[in-house]
Amino acid sequence: MTTNRVTIRDVAARAGVSVATVSKVLNERHGVAAGTLERVRAVIEELGYESSLVARSLRNHRTHVVGVLVWAIEPYSAELLKGCARAIKGTGYELVVYSTGGEGGGHMGWERRYLSRLSGTLIDGAVLVTPTVSTEEIGSPVVAVDPHVGADTAPTVEADNLHGARLAVEHLLALGHRRIGFLGRPPRDLESGRQRERGYREALRDAGIPHDPALVRAAGYEESESADAARHLLQLPDRPTAVFAANDVTAIATIDVATTLGLHVPDDLSVIGFDNVPESTATHPALTTIEQPLQLMGQRAVEMLLTLLEGHTPDPLRTRLPTRLVPRASTAPPPPSHSTADAEGAAGPRSR
């Protein structure tokens, strides 16, 4: 069944007043008698009338709506959105989420194209999640979560990715692993991706383990791409005994691939992720991971955006939140055959 949208004319007819009077009530203008004001407001409530965002923006040059732009609704962005929703409560603003449906994830500048459709008439500003370009190029009031690499004076929110990556690799090293693979995630121009790979390399370097390019693979945006990258890594003639995946979705895909290859996690292969999304506790075994406070990141981003919209500069302009290790059941010492060889390999060339 189709229902027609309630219009301002419907409200005027039910209240027995002119459209101009209803408009005055909606825009809180003077010149409406108290009794008429109450009657019109009662009809608005009764009919559930809402003026359109476009009409509202044309009248006031503001919509009092903020947007969150994501390339897809997946575990990472879903957690961020919970924090965004919490921050918007009681502010007088509304929140709209705009997703490309995964179509823009691999293409540079997707957020700029979609933001141009929304700014000015539908939203006053936006939180951009993992933007592929510098936010300085966008022009609208924006806050970036997981920002683009390079000079950028726009407000940003991020986690301490370098420290988190080091924690992940140091955890595996402490268990006795020496041959540790890394599954990153494009685009490589995201600061988080650079920092996580850097942390991986630094932790190995500090342990005296030379970098092996064969152990580093780029996982894609889709689960199938992550699975392919994991399969290539685990089918190497001298495969890793542990894998650090730069996000939990890739880590979960790695566990699935390992199982199909006949490897038991963690007895044959240790796996550690990054994010600590709710899905990480539902894997078998439960996923060891690095937690970044995703909901708090979303909350901080909206708070910073509202500060911008009020005409102020957020302080601090860049917010970096801590990461921590969450040990679960997907990591353990390497198999004896590997731990002995790895101990020898750390001291010198591996004999074959």
Short synopsis of the structure:
The protein is α/β, with parallel strands linked by helices and 352 residues long.
Q: In words, what does this structure look like?
A:
The protein has 352 residues and is an alpha/beta fold. 41% of the residues lie in helices and 15% in strands. It is built from twelve helices and twelve strands. Strand 6, helix 8 and strand 7 form a beta-alpha-beta unit. The longest helix is centred in the middle third of the chain and has 16 residues. The chain is elongated.
Q: Give the percentage of residues in beta strands.
A: 15-25%
Q: Total strand count, please?
A: 12
Largest sheet: 6 strands, parallel
What overall form do the CA principal axes indicate? elongated
Order of helices and strands: HHHHEHEHEEEHEHEHEHEEHEEH
Give the low-pLDDT segments: 340-352
| Global Rg | 26 Å
Look at the structure and give the mean pLDDT.
Answer: 86
Treating each run of at least 4 consecutive H or I residues as one helix, how many helices? 12
Q: What structural category do the secondary elements indicate?
A: alpha/beta
If strands are numbered along the chain, what order do they take across the biggest sheet? 2-1-3-4-5-11
Roughly how much helix do the residues carry, as a percent range? 40-55%
**Whole-Å distance between the termini?**
74 Å
